[in-house]
Amino acid sequence: MSSISHFRKSANEKNVEDFMADISQWEKKFYQFSEEITFFKTLVTSDVFDNKMPNLYEKLQEYYNQIIDIKEEKTNLQEAIHNHKNDLAGMMECEDISCESFYHSQHHKLTGRIEKHFSKLRELKLNLIRFSTPLLKKVE
Predict the structure, then answer these.
(1) Residue 15: closest CA among 114, 118, 93
(2) Confidence (pTM)
(3) In 45-96, which residue ranges form alpha helices assigned H by DSSP?
(4) pLDDT digits (tens), the chain, 140 positions
(5) How far is residue 36's CA from residue 53's CA, in Å, rounded to a whole number?
(6) d(C-alpha 93, C-alpha 104), whole Å
(7) How many CA atoms lie within 13 A of 70 on its CB side?
């Protein structure tokens, strides 16, 4: 007769696992968006636009600056994620609710910053697509 042992995880272990799952998703999205940002940076610096639009190069420079800002913010967020990931080990040591609340609060704040970043990136991509599509040179 075999005995089945039931291992139950503590609330802190479950929370750490949930937070690590969030971090994993963020890291995957950042990787995907890195490829897209590289493409858009190449697009706005290439000579594929029909330059009939007044102030075309100024507008492209504006998009380029937004892309650089997004890349810098991405780097800062990735560092914050790395630090948060390392800090989660401390959550396992929590013995009271205030300690655990601290980690929940930190995770919630970071989640908000990341969601705002992803939203800004989606908006930039959509605006850039809308702007560039009618201005691309036609191959004859």
Answers:
(1) 93
(2) 0.82
(3) 56-91
(4) 444 444 444 455 568 889 999 999 999 999 999 999 999 999 999 999 988 888 999 999 999 999 999 999 999 999 999 999 998 888 888 888 888 888 889 999 999 999 999 999 999 999 999 999 999 888 76
(5) 25
(6) 14
(7) 25
